[in-house]
Amino acid sequence: MIIPFEQMIPRPLLADGIETLQINVGYRCNLECRHCHIEAGPNRHELMPEALMMTCLQILKENPIPSIDITGGSPEMHSALPWFLEECGTLKRRLQVRTNGVILIENEFAVFPDLYARNRVEVVVSFPHVDLKMTDRQRGNGVYFKLIEALQKLNERGYGQKESGLILNLVHNPSGAYLPGSQSDLENHYRRVLKEKFGIAFNHLFCITNMPIGRYLTYLRESDNYDEYMATLINAFNPINLESIMCKKTLSVAWDGKLYDCDFNQILGMTVNHGAPENISAFDLPKLSNRQIVTGNHCYGCTAGAGSSCAGALAEIEQRSCTGKSL
Amino acid sequence: MADYYEQKDLADFANIGEYSPNLGKRYFSYYEDAMKAGALTAREKGLIALAVATTQKCPYCIDAYTNQCLSLGVSREEMMEAVHVGAAMVAGVVLAHSTQMRKIVKKKEM
To answer: Which of A188, A191, A319 to mutate against chain B (most B CBs within 10 Å)?
Structure first.
């Protein structure tokens, strides 16, 4: 019996401005990772029309939103991404792209590391585990060494190197039905292993809890882990995270222009609500800045333990106790 | 009582101070200090805890520390090596006690 998330929070969650416009340019991807909440893959046809990308640019020009976060799918598979990045670059906002990394070593997409560097794009690479087998089990055979090659390419261009100003962040997702551990401990482990084995440097590691939706939900159900995983999330519910939860300052735009409180709500089809416009064509900063967040039981994923967001943990914890609660 | 051990009872560990809150509080304070990263990393402490959990055959602890090791990015090979350290220690402890047996045998046999 799952306690509804709404019963766990003292009052409805309210947005507190828009610091990040997260733009999902489409669900097409060269990989089909087992944890992917988007269920992205090579056969997905959803790609943001260029007219909508122009609308996004116009809204960014007209509104003081300091951060642009481009995601997918694999954003590089959108043919208009190079143009879009150059346009975003002219806006002088914090600009980041979430990439699976592997695509950067394919000939067709080899232009992107230079394009990213030229536009001072912060690159966020999904790197589930420093262990080869764990990464390949989650993302497909051969992915690990392709990722290593991609990270080395980015390092060669200055990414992750001191004083270059080019930011390279990695994302850790658990490769199974458990929560991520302490972000600082995992970051130290990643840093040591990647440096010693491959000479790779990076800026920060973001630990992201797998949400019980999409392909990961299928995995949880098929492996008979769903009930235990949800119980773990609920048992680790940490109300401190409600203050800094990602949706309070982020607005997610889907490939078709619909607006969501987060990328997870996007996949669940839960558009923004409670009187705020649900399409970017009706963008209204004051209304969206104070909107009531649409929540569901998947929100336990962002509030468990140290919390989880697109920028990793919300609050550092040493570790979880043997009851699963944060110490 | 059909089952002595039930997985859901692990969550009850937080309530072990129910009949003795002061001692329970002091135990958790000690536990937190002992388990957090210090001279040893959280990963190293997690592996020690896992080895102890298996040698002590505590299903709750095995559940908790296997999950914690996974969360801290510990590989299955590293976990198994820690279990073998525990197994080797237990085997050594048993074999070391054969000294008592051998001393008695040597004293008693003609």
So the answer is: A319
Tell the CATH topology of B41-108.
Answer: AhpD-like (1.20.1290)
Please enumerate residues of A whose Cβ is less than 8 A from a Cβ of B. Answer: 129-131, 133-134, 172, 174, 176, 178-182, 185-186, 188-190, 228, 231-232, 235, 318-325, 327
Backbone angles phi, psi at A165, to 5 degrees: 75, 0
Q: What is the DSSP string of A254-320?
A: -TTSBEESSHHHHHHT-B--TTS-SBGGG--HHHHHTPBPP--GGGHHHHBTT--BTTB-SS--S-B
Nearest CA to A324 out of B100, B64, B29 is that of: B64
Give domain limits for chain B: 41-108
A92 within domain boundaries: yes
If you compute the radius of gyration of chain A from its CA atoms, what whole number of angstroms results?
19
The alpha-carbon gap from A304 to the nearest alpha carbon of chain B, in Å, equals 13
- The answer to whether residue A190 is domain-embedded is yes
In degrees and rounded to multiples of 5, residue A314 shows phi and psi of: -90, -35
Domain of A52, CATH number, reads 3.20.20.70
**Which chain A residues are within 8 Å of B11, Cβ to Cβ?**
231, 235, 323-324
Nearest-by-CA chain B residue for A318: B36
Per-run averaged pLDDT (10 residues), chain A, 327 residues:
91 95 97 91 96 97 97 96 96 96 95 96 95 87 94 97 94 92 92 96 95 94 94 91 92 97 95 91 95 95 79 56 41
DSSP letters along A178-189, please? S----HHHHHHH
Domain that holds residue A59: 5-303
Q: Nearest chain A residue to B30 by CA: give it.
A: A327
Contact between A271 and A258 (Cβ < 8 Å): yes
Chain A environment of B80 (Cβ under 8 Å): none
Q: What is the ipTM score, two decimals?
A: 0.73
Q: Do A189 and B10 touch (CB under 8 A)?
A: no
Nearest C-alpha neighbor of B66 from the set B90, B93, B41, B47: B47
